[in-house]
Specification:
about 850 residues; mainly beta; 22-stranded antiparallel barrel; 5-stranded antiparallel sheet; 11 helices; 45 strands; globular
Length: about 850
């Protein structure tokens, strides 16, 4: 590299660093002017970078040329003869054809950003992702065509390498940007309702804590990735209420364990969120503003571009609503940026940043108390990733560094309710006299404790930070045989108000092989190795198979028949609180604890485990326009962590001396439950005008073992003397809470000319649960039987848009068209009938 060019890259690096630093601004709700000024500064800096990169002269290389070559393939990777059109900066520059071997070549190409569109008889035309061709060298790009208008999707969570879903045997769903825009919702949890096997549990209206249960697993069994950065709490769950649709390109949902690739926490599945990138030759600036009832408003400003070696996208949004009950206002400020840079023709460097700040008024279970609490919560979340991908010959290497930080603060300013002190030990505070009726028909009337005595303001805070470095290599050994291997190092640190600081350094690695026989039988198998700071060494395997009894056909009304099988194991690390309150940790803090640990061989708390098995059938019809699927799954969850009292520990083999030393009790790996069920799904696409998808899930889940106090000592409400109740957890033999036996959904979308309209419906059956309440005497008179306590709702939404003129679009969204209380948590009202309408303006963006 010559000195001048090195100087230019140094200047570029410093400018880029300053831009990213500016992008980490804090969005303060009471300083709107400051937010706008910083946003404009960020947008301008991105534009300056793009201009600088475009203006960098490469005169010394002007008379050299590069090339692109590759193969046109069908969804299973078989060669296809077709036509390939080459585009540079949005304009057609060349065209060629591939022979029966699918091979094509473009030569004599000047430096620039290119895309290829491949078409063939009986196939849908497909556009490749953009690649950068340097002034010398060859870029190898295979272009895949698809059968029928149903989009062929690429999975990034099922295997080490990016693979078409057609070539994998695991259950995966991918929600693209098109569906996200058609739904017209401000947060991604509504898009997740369209995925079979997921139970989306929203505690109250918009902004309330939202959990996702995958195939009957717990909320913390699903690993969430933001551009590859782990987003869960340490060993814990992820609340989707704070994640808006701002700048989201796609959402991938893997509905089975994959701790081989993703390490601990990927027990039931993986949800991976990818950020948009700039794609237009000229800068594209979009501003959208809308509003509606409940004092709802949303503003969003985005700018993106792809020019030469460089692309960028920056997006900022602000959402506000009061919801419809007192002390329930919600705001969400999100700032997202993504920067990409091609280094030569074989390496791409990509950096993303998502910064979220939320505020939420929490009225508590207002329907259980009759009056709202005065609590509130604040959240601040940062997800950032830097990723390098290089492709040389048959080797693809990926290196990634990610940083995640999550801060949450919950404050209860003053006690709410009427003071009540029947025992003279200090007052608690009661809600109003209220009658509570469950979906099971049982009712209770009385007053429950809303706030407990203590010191106010009552404050609870959490903080977690995660640094992750990963590296992997994907090798094409032979035609139809690939091998991948990689490793990761992760530093975690976190604390809560009630648990001291935890520092963990974890290591992991994997090896995975992929092969196919005759483009008909596809195999993926691997082994993951985990070295966790808490529980030590673990090994997890996984195997998936896909077999085509009928191969894809572009002319047959009865198309491909795909059979799938998948089996594997997953693990989850303990949370910070579970680790700190474990038997080993509690003993470690006692004077005689080390002696007891050595004498009785007490070991640290172990991982939670799952064995997953699923088998499925997928059938296509009508030349690829219709797809139907059926899957069976069977998950066995064991060694689950729960709190067990000191009196019960000896029943689990804990020596009496140890049990007597720890006081109230400790957390141990003692619970288990099974979950099995069926998933049915169907999709229909007619060109780009009409889309339909529907799904149904049957779930049979049962607690098989538990030694927590609530499970071993059921509660009896005198109003129901013959019914045992699990106060805080389900009883053995019962269904886990918040897991509906029946659930389903439908999505209709129609588009023609400048307009489109979409109708979505989510249908959820009854679920077991608890009111979790004490009456004023710490009694059980406010408890209801667990079975079929809550749920049974239909949430129907309507959205649409119309392009008024070039660059101007009107859009509207109606949520909860039937005005039902769709919250799955008893006592918390869901979002009522809500309508939003607005307009977006787009300038530039050609090519």
């Amino acid at each position: 590299m010559n000195r001048n060019r090195r100087t230019r890259l140094t200047i570029f690096s410093e400018t880029l660093h300053e831009s990213v630093r500016s992008s980490t601004i804090e969005i303060e709700s009471n300083r709107g002017e400051r937010f706008v000024v910083r946003l404009v500064r960020t947008v301008v800096s991105m534009a300056v970078i793009a201009f600088a990169v475009e203006a960098v002269p490469l005169m010394a290389l002007a008379f050299q040329a590069g090339s692109i070559s590759g193969t046109v393939v069908d969804p299973l990777g078989a060669s296809v003869a077709g036509t390939i059109v080459l585009y540079r900066d949005g304009s057609e520059v060349a065209q060629t054809t591939s022979g029966t071997d699918g091979a094509y070549t473009f030569t004599g190409l000047p430096s620039g950003r290119y895309r290829m569109e491949a078409s063939a008889a009986g196939f849908e035309a497909t556009m490749s992702e953009a690649v950068f061709v340097g002034s010398t060298g060859n870029m190898a790009v295979d272009v895949s065509v698809q059968i029928g208008p149903l989009e062929q999707q690429i999975s990034v969570t099922a295997a080490s390498a990016e693979l078409p879903v057609a070539q994998i045997g695991v259950p995966v769903s991918i929600i693209g940007q098109d569906l996200i825009e058609r739904l017209g919702k401000p947060d991604i949890l509504e898009a997740l309702r369209t995925v079979p096997g997921l139970s989306v549990v929203q505690t109250g209206a918009r902004g309330g804590a939202t959990s996702v249960f995958t195939r009957g697993g717990e909320a913390d069994f699903t690993k969430v990735l933001m551009d590859g950065a782990p987003a869960n709490d340490i060993g814990g769950a992820f609340s989707f209420d704070a994640l808006s649709t701002t700048a989201i390109e796609s959402i991938e949902v893997l509905r089975t364990a994959n701790s081989v690739l993703h390490g601990a926490d990927a027990m039931s599945g993986v949800i991976s969120v990818e950020t948009r990138r700039g794609k237009t030759r000229l800068p594209e600036l979009t501003y959208a503003v809308d509003g509606g009832n409940l004092h709802t408003s949303r503003n969003e400003l985005a700018l993106g571009q792809a020019v030469g070696r460089f692309d960028y996208f920056v997006d900022a949004s602000r959402y506000d609503t009061d919801n419809d009950v007192p002390n329930n206002e919600y705001r969400n400020d999100t700032l997202v940026s993504r920067v990409g840079f091609f280094l030569g023709s074989t390496t791409n460097i990509d950096a993303t940043l998502r910064r979220v700040e939320t505020g939420f008024g929490s009225p508590n279970g207002i329907l259980l108390y009759g009056i709202p609490d005065d609590s509130n919560s604040r959240g601040r979340f940062t997800y950032s990733t830097v990723r390098s991908v290089s492709v040389v010959d048959r080797v693809r290497t990926t290196f990634q560094y990610s940083y995640t930080e999550q801060d949450a603060l919950y404050t209860n300013s003053t006690p709410t309710g009427e003071e009540f002190d029947p025992f003279g030990f200090g007052a608690n505070y009661l809600g109003d006299q209220i009658t509570i009726t469950g979906q099971n028909g049982h009712s209770v009337t009385g007053r429950a404790i809303l706030d407990y005595g203590g010191v106010y303001p009552s404050v609870f805070s959490t903080n977690s930070r995660r640094h992750l470095f990963t590296g992997k290599a994907d090798l094409e050994l032979l035609d139809g045989l690939d091998l991948s291997f990689g490793g990761r190092i992760e530093d975690e640190a976190g604390f809560t108000t009630f648990a001291s600081l935890a520092d963990r350094r974890n290591h992991g690695g994997f090896i995975e092989g992929r092969g196919n026989i005759g483009r008909r039988f596809f195999v993926t198998g691997g082994v993951g190795f985990e070295d966790n700071a808490v529980f030590g060494h673990e090994t997890v395997p996984r195997l998936s198979l896909a077999f085509y009894a009928r191969q894809p056909s572009s002319v047959s009304a009865f198309g491909e028949t795909k059979l799938m099988f998948n089996i594997g194991e997953g693990i989850k690390a303990p949370t910070v609180s579970d680790d700190r309150s474990s038997l080993f940790a509690v003993l470690s803090g006692l004077d005689n604890g080390p002696d007891l640990i050595n004498r009785f061989g007490v070991s640290p708390i172990g991982p939670e485990r799952v064995r997953t098995l699923d088998a499925g059938l997928e059938q296509r019809f009508w030349e690829g326009r219709v797809r139907a699927g059926l899957s069976y799954f069977n998950n066995s969850n064991k060694d689950l962590i729960e709190f067990v009292s000191g009196q019960i520990l000896p029943r689990l083999g804990v020596p009496t001396d140890v049990a007597n030393s720890i006081g109230f009790g400790a957390t141990i790996n003692s619970a288990s439950f099974d979950a099995q069920g069926l998933e049915l799904s169907g999709d229909l696409a007619l060109a780009n005008q009409f889309l339909f998808s529907g799904w149904y899930t049957f779930l049979d889940a049962e607690v098989t073992e538990s030694f927590s106090g609530g499970a071993l000592t059921p509660t009896i409400n005198p109003a129901f003397p013959d019914i045992e109740i699990g106060h805080f957890a389900p009883l053995v033999g019962a269904r886990p809470f918040a897991r509906p036996t029946h659930s389903g959904g439908l999505t209709f979308s129609w588009a023609r000319g400048p307009g489109q309209i979409s109708l979505t419906g989510s249908f959820v059956g009854k679920q077991d649960g608890s009111t979790f309440l004490f009456d004023g005497f710490f009694g059980s008179s406010m408890l209801l039987p667990n079975k079929d306590l809550s749920g049974n709702y239909e949430k129907v939404d309507l959205s649409g848009s119309y392009r008024l003129r070039r660059g101007v679009k009107w859009y509207a969204s109606i949520e909860n068209l039937l005005n039902q209380n769709y919250s799955q948590t008893l006592g918390f009202p869901g979002l009522p009938f809500t309508i939003r309408s607005g307009v977006s303006f787009t300038v530039g963006g050609e090519g």
